[in-house]
Amino acid sequence: MRYLPYCAVIALTSLSSGIAAAEDTLKGTYSFVGTQVCLSSPAGFKRDINGNFTIPVGETNVSQTTTEGEIVYNGDGTGKATQTFVTTVPPPNPYGAAISAGTISYSFTYAPESDRSYRMMLKPDSFQGRLDAGPNAGQQFSIDVGSRVLRVSDDRRHITFGIAKPYVEKITFSGSPEFPVPRICTAIGTQALADKSIATIGQSK
Fold first, then answer.
1. DSSP 3-state assignment of 122?
2. Which residues pair with 32 in a beta bridge?
3. What pLDDT sits at residue 51?
């Protein structure tokens, strides 16, 4: 079994989302920036003493990503994001150091969890990515799952997002579709309202 080198060079950094509540709907376009760090373990992860899959098995590599893009909230609990990213896999690394870049798009759903706190989930089979630069330029890739927690300002003009609890996602490259690579990521970022004219701020009565 041969794993694709630089298998952790992709980000889902901006996988943040909108807000859906019966009396308080958010609709609009937001710009965002974010950072992400991922630990990839081609052999997978095992459970810790609390039953969480957090302990890597075998060799690992670490990737660091910065990203920017645009998120559109439809106002009905669904949305879509597009982004560009640059990822660095620094040495020492068993698969070799690298820098890669590309584009991503995906759809998501979202729901409130508490006051000004929301949970976003990647819509299955919606993630589409492309590597435009780096050792594997030209390849396509996908990610199977994704989740972010959002904190929204009172005026709905600013959103911060992050990962509250670690989980395993799998990234699959077109060059080796038979070998999806498990990884665990942490991510943080911010969003800012880009078009105030189409935002609904607590007025959907």
1. strand
2. 69, 191
3. 95
